[in-house]
Structures are given as C-alpha cells and as structure tokens.
Amino acid sequence: MSEKDSFKFFNSYRVGVLTNLFNMKTIAFMVSIYSGFLAVPRSIFEQIFIVVVCSSLEFIWYFLVALLFGSSLVRGVFNRYRVSIDRGLSLFLVLFAMQNIYHII
C-alpha cells in the first residue's frame, strides 16, 4: 500500500468513525443493543466482554468499508451505479416497512 493509498484509507476510516459517533440513529441502535445485553444481571467480566465484542465488530465493519471504498476501482464502480443502488435500496426499505405495517395491522 503506497503512502497515498494509506492516507486515503485512514482518511476514509476517520470519516466513517466520526460519522458513526455523531449519528443519532447509530447511537440509539447501540444503546438498545447494549441495554438489552446489560439489563440482565451479569458479572463485570461478561459486561466488559459484551462491550469489547460489539465495539470490535464496529471497528472491523468500518475497517472493511474504508478498505473497500478506499480503492479507486471500487469507488468508481459504486459511483457509476449509485443511482441504481439508491433506488434498489429505497425499494427494499419501502417493501420492508410495508411488510412490517401489514404484520402490525
């Protein structure tokens, strides 16, 4: 990995981490996960283990995303198909929401 590529990777990782830290939806999600696991009486070792595992998974996820999208080839392909990806994901989320509403009613 060249120095330029290394800078792109760490810059991408930094942006991802900062976005995650200040994203209210992510904070709410993580609080709900932690509170569900930590609400049950557990030893201090188990509590620390849960926090370390969840934090490690977050680290690994953003590491892989930064590594993947730090590549100009992957970024180029993503940008070329961005509109299609956005539309496909939007359709999926709308159908998922409709399914949830259907099951509630």
TrEMBL record:
GO cellular component: plasma membrane
Localization annotation: Cell membrane
Principal place of residence: membrane
Keyword match Membrane: yes
Pfam families noted in UniProt: LysE
InterPro entries, A to Z: LeuE-type
Source taxon at top rank: Bacteria
Membrane topology: Multi-pass membrane protein
Residue ranges crossing the lipid bilayer per the database entry: 21-39, 59-78, 85-102
One example of a Gene Ontology biological process annotation: amino acid transport
Keyword Cell membrane attached: yes
Keywords of the record: Cell membrane, Membrane, Transmembrane, Transmembrane helix
Protein name (Swiss-Prot/TrEMBL): LysE type translocator
